[in-house]
Amino acid sequence: MAARIRENIDVDLEENHEINVTPFIDVILVLLIIFMVAAPLATVDVNVDLPGSTATPAPRPEMPLFLTLKDDLSLAIGNDSVPRGVFAATLDGRTKGDKQTRIFLRADKAVGYGDLMEVMNLLRGAGYLKIALVGLETLPAADAATPAPQDGTGQ
């Protein structure tokens, strides 16, 4: 970069219309590196086997296997109560040892999240990883506002 010495003191200095972009580029590169490092840390990978909210319900197998967690925290496979000690053996007997069988898990409203997770850990410990959570189908907000007819005629 060259500098020019003024020949005359009375002459006004020329304005320099150049922008020094080196600090700007340095800041942009630092920000780029920060975002490149932070972006992979911000993603969360959760493996959940649930359909989208607008999807129609998935077809049910001919003989679904329901595991029920009651409000007193007792377990039932189908309609039979099962103690937790023999849970894995009973489940293996019902599925004939097929660990790819989808287990439909339903729980009472009064059951806490921690208790539900314990049952899911029991299933995982037994080797069953395909779990479907069962809930009641509810009407959309617009349909729920109109009361259903009480006389059974549909009118």
TL;DR?
With 155 residues, this protein is an alpha/beta fold. Helices cover 31% and strands 12% of the residues.
What does this structure look like?
GO terms for molecular function: transmembrane transporter activity. The chain crosses the membrane at residues 21-42. It is rod-shaped and about 105 Å long. A 5-stranded mixed sheet has the order 3-2-1-4-5, with helices on one face. 4% of the residues are buried. The protein has helices at 22-42, 87-95, 113-126, 141-144, and strands at residues 65-69, 75-77, 80-82, 103-107, 131-133. It has a domain at 65-134: Nucleotidyltransferase, domain 5 (2-Layer Sandwich). The chain is built from 4 helices and 5 strands, in the order αβββαβαβα. The model is unreliable at 45-55 and 151-155 (pLDDT under 50). By secondary structure, it is of the alpha/beta class. Strand 1 and strand 2 (75-77) form a beta hairpin. Helix content is 31%, strand content 12%. Helix 2 (87-95) crosses helix 3.
Topology:
Layout: H1 22-42, E1 65-69, E2 75-77, E3 80-82, H2 87-95, E4 103-107, H3 113-126, E5 131-133, H4 141-144
Parallel strand pairs: 1-4, 4-5
Antiparallel strand pairs: 1-2, 2-3
